[in-house]
Write a structure and sequence with these properties.
It contains 20 helices and two strands. The protein is mainly α.
Length: 516
Amino acid sequence: MSRNDHKENGNTSLNRAKPYQLVLFPFNNGATNVYYILTATYIAYYGNGVLGLALMFATTMVTVMRLFDAVTDPIIGALIDKTNGRFGKFRPYMILGNIVMAVSAFLLYFATRWIPESMMSLRYIAYVVIYMVYVIGYTFQTSVTRSGQTVLTNDPQQRPLFTIFNLIASMIGMGSIQFFAPIIRAKYGDYTTPQFFDIIIPIAVLVSAFLTLLAVIGIWEKDRPEYFGIAGSAAQKVKISEYLEILKNNSPLRRLMVAGAGCKLALAIATNGTVLCMLYGGMMGNYNGLYLPMMIAGYVFSAPFFVLSVRTSQKKGQKASLMRYVSLALVMYAGVLVLLFLWKQGVPGVNLSLYSMEGGFHLTLNLYTILFLVFFGIGYGAYYATADMPIPMVADCSDYETYRSGRFIPGILGTLFSLVDKLVSSLSSTVVGFAVASIGLSTLPGGDTPYTEGMSGVVIVLFCVIPMIAWAVTLLAMKGYILTGEKMREVQEVNARRKEAVEGGMSLEEAMRKFK
């Protein structure tokens, strides 16, 4: 490792990233979020509406495959930690994962349609098998998002920047699909038409491939043995049985797993496409006029929170930042909850109304809409800014594990975190599916689905109550999180001294005993 990396500003513990590396590597998360939004929001529409699979099967399979994704995580994490070839530790999994997802996406969304309806059982089988292959590719690439950042930088001033660039990359990945989807839907009828998928899938594959290329460029220089922990190029071998020992003794990781799962569950359900169809279409009666403007408003409100959360992280640590803005989201969504309770079908003063095109464009804002925009905007901005904050905090937990045990196992640490994250977030599609079925609907609501009795109650629970409970759990979990900014400075300094000692010929065991 170059001495400039470690001795900048007189600090021997710093491995700093170049600005372009901080900007580009997070696009790995943006690339996988393209596929995440496809599966979380639209794959059930495809299975139910295009292939004719049963509603509960289509929605439940999203959960089942998310569980499969979670189970494969630790296995692939261990493979990453053992990998140290000519192409690095992380890049092969990024590239291979994206290729597998691209191929399986075309097979899943196009080839399954070639199976005639008379062979419906074969459709079910092909759907499941191809979906499983897709999930393996997804796990390959997503595992790198959490593990690869450990080699990018350990500077406490730089690591919080990963959050803001990760959010920007995530917005570009998810936002590209969320932007094009309603436009394509408006042209072809709904999310259940084959034409919708004929257009959105090629767009998704191309966008994800381009973002992956940017991410590979971002990590290229850092994907080398000299950045791989204290022991460098030495392969890290951890038995599956040792995972429990890691969880038992790495308290910060346990707490972060709970907090990350809470943040992800809140985001997955509150932004679920079916929930938004019921809110803006069924309840408010104007999906086309509300969905995109409200999505854009949420992103606009998020911008200042990106900056605020990073500044708070740099000054007080990432724990303080996460707790502050999750608390704000919880308070603001209490206001959204009250407004949804006040809603009455067809009553102008208690429905969302932004503009009208009758007789030319003119604003139709009312007090209810203004209050909703304020509460929703601030709440959305605060929780969206923190939704991916646990990701760079996983790197802190990985450095802490090196500090605690001497092992550099970012693959395992990252995938242990995502294991619980995916287990919990996998519930979102099934919860939505059961909620829709509970009010008597046999197909997932689209933007034009009329209001059904009980829909407002379902929206209140899914859009507000469950996210608020998830945020409360996050706050409780983070209360005892010990990796403050001060503690992380100690961790980095000790790890750096041990590394220098090992490079000088001292055994790892002796360095662990000497530097504490």
